[in-house]
Amino acid sequence: MLPRYTQIKLALLDAIEDGTMGPGDQVPSENQLALQHQVSRMTARRAVTELVEEGILMRTQGLGTFVSDHRPMSSMLEIRSIRDEVIQRGHRYASSILHLDSVIANEALARWLDVGIGDVVFHSIIVHSENGQPIQYEERWVNPRWAPDYLQQDFSQQTANHYLNLVAPLTQADHSVEAMLPEAHIAQALQITAADPCLKISRRTYSARGVVSHAVLYHPGNRYRLGGHLNFQAKT
Amino acid sequence: MLPRYTQIKLALLDAIEDGTMGPGDQVPSENQLALQHQVSRMTARRAVTELVEEGILMRTQGLGTFVSDHRPMSSMLEIRSIRDEVIQRGHRYASSILHLDSVIANEALARWLDVGIGDVVFHSIIVHSENGQPIQYEERWVNPRWAPDYLQQDFSQQTANHYLNLVAPLTQADHSVEAMLPEAHIAQALQITAADPCLKISRRTYSARGVVSHAVLYHPGNRYRLGGHLNFQAKT
DNA sequence: ACATACTACTTGTATATACAAGTATGCACA
DNA sequence: TGTGCATACTTGTATATACAAGTAGTATGT
């Protein structure tokens, strides 16, 4: 049995995800929440406090508590599904699949994925959008060894990231981030011009047994930020 | 007047700093703290809870609360001095100081640094270069409270980052990364054109007692990449 | 000797209550 | 027409209390 304040947190998160409460909307006051959930105000308050600390809600003394509407931001320190990110912000998520096929590994690709030159690897290009605006162009190469059914997946239902995490749980990742101007076809897919700067993230993910995939993610600079919070104390 | 729980937090931080309590030591129990400070247990508990959230203390149900190990971690995303980075690559490092002065905090800056509007804060702009090519434009605002001698430092000998780490050891940092086109004066300082994309990193650093500095770092997109390695084994 | 139960402590959850402090609105008064 | 005040909300701080749950050590019974 989960603690009451956790249940209230989950109820609030549900309301944000299913659109009952959108960014900027006022959350029921602590007293109202207490009434609705039949708990004391202090317990309702704790639920709200934790969501505020997570950045999902914002409150102002004397005014009320509101669903925050931060600019898209994701963490460099955890690898989350872009879909979850968007939905948790209370926004509309959609994706379109531009490519889903298999290719022959050239030398560079073989080195990235730790396979042989000439081996078959899976390949996908997917564009993710938030409220109708593209926010990520995802090109990914996958080692068939750890995800043999990759091509049979329906990535409109479940992100590649999510699927891979199911069949080959992540244990490590390398990534690098840089700013660059997009190539023409990427600019077109993201609905920006070739002069708009992009954030390019190259990432290689590992499961316990080896390299799972190599992904290159492009984000429009003006619609996306990568964020993080570091805590330098050891957690042990 | 600070809230009671904040006063207790500060008292605990003092005890950690002056060595009364070292890493691994047990902190007085919530009931003892409540007695010592003449507050209710819930108030003492709140002080401890916040320090736990900041990673300074650790607690275990049934056992007690302990001072965490201070060892600066994170192979994942270490905040390193740009100077060390360059030198470690075996390249030539140089820096030039464009500004080193104090300014009056406007509303936005006051919020970033958690000072009052109109307070004096220190300000510096430094350009770092690798093998003669600029690779970082660093604009930084510093809370004088934690680094009163900031303006007297010789930043050609020691980076701002390094100095701050001495006088107010980092415990936490927030940052966000985005791609953007540089303003004219930044482009000029970095010796690039205004059409060359840049990586902009905004970072706020904290010591145990509060916000130490706010830095905005610009890197030419074609000369710099941000890298990292994540390991998912230990945590959660 | 060994397992069980008890005890004394710790942190974790939850309540009911009180008042302080900040915000917005409408109403009375000049 | 305003200006200020009262009011009705909100969140913020603080207390006293109760019991649940986890840990460690001690005493007890077989």
List the helices and strands and how they pair.
The structure is a homodimer of 236-residue chains.
Chain A: H1 4-17, E1 26-27, H2 30-37, H3 41-53, E2 57-60, E3 64-67, E4 73-75, H4 82-88, E5 93-104, H5 107-113, E6 120-130, E7 133-142, H6 160-167, E8 170-180, H7 184-190, E9 198-207, E10 210-220, E11 225-231
Parallel strand pairs in A: 4-11
Antiparallel strand pairs in A: 1-3, 2-3, 5-6, 6-7, 7-10, 8-9, 9-10
Helix pairs in contact in A: 1-3, 2-3
Chain A binds a DNA duplex (30 and 30 nucleotides) through α3.
Organism (chains A, B): Fluctibacter halophilus
Pfam families (chains A, B): GntR, UTRA
Keywords (chains A, B): DNA-binding, Transcription, Transcription regulation
Can you offer a commentary on this structure?
The structure is a homodimer of 236-residue chains. Chain A is α+β, with helices and mostly antiparallel strands and 236 residues long. Chain A has helices at residues 4-17, 30-37, 41-53, 82-88, 107-113, 160-167, 184-190; strands spanning 26-27, 57-60, 64-67, 73-75, 93-104, 120-130, 133-142, 170-180, 198-207, 210-220, 225-231. The mean pLDDT of chain A is 87. In chain A, strands 5-6-7-10-9-8 form a 6-stranded antiparallel beta sheet. In chain A, strands 1-3-2 form a 3-stranded antiparallel beta sheet. Chain A has 2 domains: 4-67, Winged helix-like DNA-binding domain superfamily/Winged helix DNA-binding domain (Arc Repressor Mutant, subunit A, Orthogonal Bundle); 73-227, 3-Layer(aba) Sandwich (Chorismate lyase), CATH 3.40.1410. In chain A, α1 packs across α3. Chain A is elongated, with a radius of gyration of 21 Å. The A-B interface holds A 53, 73, 76-79, 170-181, 195, 197-200, 219, 221-222, 224-236 and B 53-56, 58, 68-74, 76-77, 79, 170-181, 195, 197-200, 219, 221-222, 224-235. β8 of chain A pairs antiparallel with β10 (226-231) of chain B. Chain A binds a DNA duplex (30 and 30 nucleotides) through α3.
